[in-house]
Specification:
single chain; alpha+beta; four-stranded mixed sheet
Length: 109
Amino acid sequence: MTYSAQHLSQEPQRSDIDTQPGLTVLEFGTPWCPHCLGAQGLIEQALGPRADIRHLKVEDGPGKPLGRSYRIKLWPTLVVLRDGQEVARVVRPTDAASIQTALAALQTP
């Protein structure tokens, strides 16, 4: 799986994310957020060629447990995971290079 343009209809449970094998990028934001909309091209550019990474677009907001468990403060925030463990994070990316730098953290075990 690679870049996903649509938010999940229901956010996953943190316990499911923590036990997810492989490489995952959680993208926290909303479909109406101007920062989120502006970053979509950058996120797609960085994730598009990476078929090895699962991309989960999670709609965040007050009281949403998954975003709170990751202490999300600004949108979009990309949380990069290897086998359910956070290895990097990008907050409000302004270029694809910052996302690619975070993805590079997946290369070192």
